[in-house]
Amino acid sequence: SEVRRELTACFRIGVKLESWLNTYQPPLSAGGNAGVSAEVQEGIFSNVHTMTVGSGDALHRMLAFEKEHALMRKASTAP
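The structure corresponding to this sequence follows.
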């Protein structure tokens, strides 16, 4: 489905962004310096992490719903 594809893409880009942000020494999540203040760096990492976690959670909820829906359909069509 299109929703699953979009959520998966969002999750994957979030994981890639987090990995890229953590290549700074020290990493942005630990207040590293990339020419901007630690607060801004932490905000960037926090927003990316929130997007990653949110899309991952949404994928899990969607898959659980699809599983429950399939079980209900199977139970309703069973003789």
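The CA atoms of residues 18 and 48 lie 7 Å apart.
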